Structure formats: structure tokens, C-alpha cells
Amino acid sequence: MTSIERTAYPRFKQNISKKELATIYTVTHEENIFAHRISRGESSVFICLVMLKSFQRLGYFDLVKKNWNTN
């Protein structure tokens, strides 16, 4: 059976290795500049980068309110 990460509606893996974490989710210099250009404040930059990396991994934007407490 195909793993859920490889289906039409992928999800994040439950367990991720340190190597995968570093390879997939390390922010590049260009991504950091992009996030600082379009965001105001450090928390907004952080959320922007999380959403960017999530989109790169999943191929779609997930709702912030669904997954994180944004208060």
C-alpha cells in the first residue's frame, strides 16, 4: 500500500529523521529574504516561512487556524 505521504493528498510524516529535517526544511538565504520582504515582524516572518516550507513539501497550503494557535 502507498504511504500517505505519497498520495494525492499528502500529509506530514509522523516521524522524520534529522537528515530529512535538515534537507527539506532548512530555510535558504533567498527564502529568508523573501519572507522578510513580504512580512512585518518576526512572528509573521516565521509563519511565512513555515507556510512556505509546508507548501513546498505538501504541494498545497494548509489552513493556519486549523493547525496552529495564532493568538
The helix content is 40-55%
**Rounded average pLDDT:** 85
Distance between the termini: 39 Å
Proportion of residues in β-strands: under 5%
Helix count from the secondary structure assignment = 4
Rg over CA atoms: 14 Å
Outline the low-pLDDT stretches: none
Number of DSSP strands?
Answer: 0
Which structural class do you get from the secondary structure elements?
A: mainly alpha
Main beta sheet: strand number and arrangement?
A: none
Q: Name the helix and strand elements from N-terminus to C-terminus, one letter apiece.
A: HHHH
Inertia-based shape = globular
| Number of spatially distinct domains | 1
What does the model show?
This is DUF4158 domain-containing protein. Residues 1-61 form the DUF4158 domain. By secondary structure, this protein is mainly α. It is built from 4 helices and no strands. The chain has one domain (17-67). Helices cover 55% and strands 0% of the residues. It has helices spanning 18-25, 29-38, 42-58, 64-67. The mean pLDDT is 85. The chain is globular and about 45 Å long. α2 crosses α3 (42-58).
